[in-house]
Input
Amino acid sequence: AADVIFLPGNYHLVLNGQLRRADPRPIIVSKISNPPRPHWLPAFMGRWVVRRFSRAIDGLAAMNTGLARELRAMLPTIPVATLYDPVYIQHDTQFDHVTHHNGALNILWAGRLERQKDVFLALQVIQALNTRQPAQLTILGEGSQRARLMRAISTMGLSHIVNATGHVPNIDPYLQRADALLVTSHYEGGPAVAVEALAHGVPVVSTDCSAFLHDIMTVQDAGEIIPSRASQDLADALLRVTAADGSIERMKALVAHLDPTSCAQAYLDWFAMMLENKAHAH
Output
């Protein structure tokens, strides 16, 4: 006897038709966490797929304002809300970024070692950066591309400046030592690691992979979003960002609204509004 059926991501949209046929009473809503049209589909075909699998949906929750705009254009008859995912941050000031003055920059990269994240671009960036400034790269994460990554580090002669640490249970100590977080993804719904970095006063340099980053990186202290995927452009941005010495407090303020309690309440309010709208419609 559900009032609301919530589908937690893009790939669950295919269930909405069968759920509606099974029980016409509850509202069916879904979170959209990645671009609704797969990048490998032509635009017209992507729109058809999204519309086809959204016929029984009563409402959509986009993880950022860019996704919300895209969904409203593709599905003008379905209500779309922008609702952010929570990020579980350890608010322990002992892990806030501490500026180091040993002459070598400490750059952090964290994510799954999969094609989407493009860790190999990070290797090219650290190689380009070292032509201008001594720097080290720490890579956190595991995935199917680990063996290829280790070969690339060796082949490129980067073993002395790149440390592929693997998965770690707590990123905070690494953020404390980082001068900047580097994000090299092709696309993202909302990279939580960028939120964690800003919450600890670590600026972010990222490819333009997510509208979510534009939502939160609204002051210069936060870092830079680079429209190019050229390694030199990202390396130049790292030099600018690490030289700026931005305000930790201003960075923290950018992500304060992403705490779990605030995000959970926003979802509950949305569910209640959708139910109220349905009641008025009938």
Notes: The chain has a mean pLDDT of 90.
